[in-house]
Amino acid sequence: MADSQVAVEHDNPALRHHFATQEQQREAASLGMWLFLGTEIMFFGGMFCAYLIYRYWYYNEFAAGSRTLNIWLGTTNTAVLICSSLTVALAVRAAQTGKRKLLLGLLLATMLFGLAFLAIKGTEWHDEYVEHHVPGMGFQFDTTVPQHPDQKIDPQHAQIFFSLYFTMTGIHALHMIIGLGIFIYLTVMAWKGRYTPEYHTPIEIGGLYWHFVDIIWIYLFPLLYLIDRKK
Amino acid sequence: MSEHILPSKLYYAIWASLLCLTVITAAVAFVDLGPFNTVVALVIATFKALLVVLFFMHVKYTSEKMTRVVIFAGIFWLLLLLFLSLADYTTRLLR
Predict the structure, then answer these.
(1) What percent of chain A has pLDDT over 90?
(2) With 0-12 CB in 10 A as exposed, 13-18 as middle and 19+ as buried, what is B37?
(3) Does ipTM exceed 0.90?
(4) Looking at the complex, does the CB of residue B83 fall below 8 Å from at least one CB of chain A?
(5) C-alpha span between B72 and B74 (Å, rounded)
(6) Which pLDDT does position A144 carry in this prediction?
(7) What is the SS3 assignment for A150?
(8) Does residue B9 contact residue A86 with C-beta atoms inside 8 Å?
(9) Which of A110, A141, A205, A227 could form a cystine bridge with A66, CB 3.0-4.6 A?
């Protein structure tokens, strides 16, 4: 009697006993990661909600604070993350087609883009620190509302913009660092030859996490950097 | 996530689109559209997010229906949070 498909698949040690097929195991892993990303939507969602309410209350201060952010570095960072999402997607494809060397190269490229993003963000934070825009660290903000030179910007309200800016980009950067940790693990495993066309689920779900962090930045960029750039 | 192996050309096309949309977002910010600056920026951002979710995250090609349910549930919850909170704060003097 020929072995059933299910029995044959269970010869593969990567298939755990409580799953019937590789396909089912892969889809369960994917669903698990998507559920986690759902919790991340809740996590970031709270901060976005706070941001929207304060922006509605203190629009002028938010616009003034936004204008002090470096739009060129922000745009560059957006491009850097988009490139990293490309290398991640291509890495999954390399794993699907069994190209180990290509997979390793793309995983490393992804991490390099991630490091570049963090380096650029660090430069921005340093510049903001020097300008006294870090809340609680000698915060100073002295300017007037554009087109209304008689109205001064309330520094306390401007400080709220910067609190949200540093918190949201800070938590985002923390997620990037965690992502880098995950990808270091994936690179080591890929180096050891653990990933094949039949089994490369960690690459796929690691990729899902990375793309999500990219999507968060895709929304952070216009909301923080582009509130009011018309002169 | 299905095992559809997508052509790398597709990934490059999505990547190029995302970069173009980024440049457009930044450029439009300097044009005076009044209150529509924010609307345009967020619409473009949502389109970019859609490209990432559907193609880079393979959601367009997966046969797993629960994935879409989870994504829809997450976004629905977020919109509920944002819309109802803003509806409260913008229509009443809560200060």
Answers:
(1) 77
(2) buried
(3) yes
(4) no
(5) 5
(6) 72
(7) strand
(8) no
(9) A227
Is residue A7, in this structure, part of any structural domain at all?
A: no
Contact yes or no for A226 and B29 at CB 8 A: yes
| Residue B68 lies in domain | 64-95
Given CB atoms, is B10 within the 8 Å cutoff of chain A?
Answer: no
Per CB-CB distance under 8 Å, the chain A contacts of B44 are 222
The verdict on residue A10 lying in a domain is: no
Identify which of A188, A211, A201 has the alpha carbon closest to the alpha carbon of residue B71.
Answer: A211
How near does any CA of chain B get to the CA of A25, in Å?
Answer: 11
Please enumerate in sequence order all residues whose Cβ is within 8 A of that of A83, keeping only pairs 6 or more positions apart, or say none. A113, B15
User: In CATH, what number is assigned to the domain containing residue A101?
Assistant: 1.20.120.80
Whether A8 is in a domain gets the answer: no
Domain ranges, residue A145: 33-225
Whether chain A has a CB inside 8 Å of the CB on B42: the answer is: yes
Given this model, what pLDDT does residue B95 score? 67
Q: d(Cα B62, Cα B32) in Å, to the nearest integer?
A: 41
Residue carrying the six token digits 């052509």 = B7
